Each structure stands twice: as structure tokens, then as C-alpha cells.
Amino acid sequence: MTTLLIALAGGAGALTRFVTDGAIARRNRLRMPVGTVVINVTGSFLLGLLTGLFALSSADSSGAAVKAIIGTGFCGGYTTFSTASVESMRLWLAEGRGTGIGYAATTLVLGVAAAAAGIGVGHLLG
């Protein structure tokens, strides 16, 4: 049953990514793929929050299932490292090396900061 729920959550995450990216792309006036950054940063925060909430809890089967469904399923379907990598290379080729590296570095730094913030909030709430 958990495997089915992980798969369904993964589909929900991918659908959420598609809708979110589309909404951001319609409003984005920059040549940068802002949607992917927003998706990866919010996904990193959510995964950090989940980690912070469950870090101090007991490892019972229901907690493990929730972590797998939300963390692996939803966050795995929602976030997209591969798209960020392709977009970094596309920017490198179209706009120059500095732009591609800057985009990749920004995505990495904001994602790690969001995960750390999520862990902190999760510890406060947990």
C-alpha cells in the first residue's frame, strides 16, 4: 500500500510542478528559467521541513511511511535536478559561461538554504 501511495504522491508532485512552472512562466519577463528555481527551492524547504519534523520522532512504521510518501513521492516528483542542470547548460551556451554557472550556483545555494530553513522550522514545530 505504501508503494502505491508513494507513486500517487510522485504523480501529484509532478503535476504540481507542471502547474507551478506554467504559472510562473506566464508571468516571467526574465530570460532566466525562474520556475525551476522556485520549484527546487520550495521542494527543498518542504523536504527540510519534513526532515526537521521527523528527526526527533520515533521511527515507527507510520512515520516512516509518511516520510516516504511525502519525501520520496511528492518531493521527488515535484523537484527537478535534471531540468536545473539542462537549464544551466542552456544558459551557458546561449548567454555565456558566467550566466550558466551563476544560475547553477544560485539554484544550489538557495536550495541548501531553503532545506536548512525547513529543518529549523521543522525542529521548532516538532
TrEMBL record:
Xref: InterPro entries: FluC (IPR003691)
Chief location bin: membrane
Membrane topology, record value: Multi-pass membrane protein
Annotated keywords: Cell membrane, Ion channel, Ion transport, Membrane, Metal-binding, Sodium, Transmembrane, Transmembrane helix, Transport
Keyword tRNA processing: no
Regulation of catalytic or functional activity: Na(+) is not transported, but it plays an essential structural role and its presence is essential for fluoride channel function.
Protein's recorded name: Fluoride-specific ion channel FluC
Species the sequence originates in: Terrabacter tumescens
The organism's taxonomic lineage, starting at the top: Bacteria, Bacillati, Actinomycetota, Actinomycetes, Micrococcales
